[in-house]
Amino acid sequence: MTSGLNDFTYSAPVQTLAGAGLTDLPATLSDAERYTYVHDGNSQVLDHILLSSVLACASYSYDVVHVNSESAVRQSDHDPQVARIALP
Description:
Elements: E1 2-6, H1 12-19, E2 23-24, E3 37-39, E4 42-44, E5 47-51, H2 53-57, E6 59-64, E7 81-86
Antiparallel strand pairs: 1-5, 2-5, 3-4, 6-7
């Protein structure tokens, strides 16, 4: 199971889901890469991809593609995320 969520990392819904055993993929990135949007000069994680324990045990790669937040011309203030999951 995968799930997407648009909320702050410290919000109750994100904390509840992570506490229930889902892996929050943005949390797996280094501090320097851990942001999914920039608004008024503030960069934070607002977008999440959550993996169930079964998928988190599979081979996966994850990254945030910083094409909007680091560009003067942008389509959105949110950056796209890419998750690749290799299932057996």
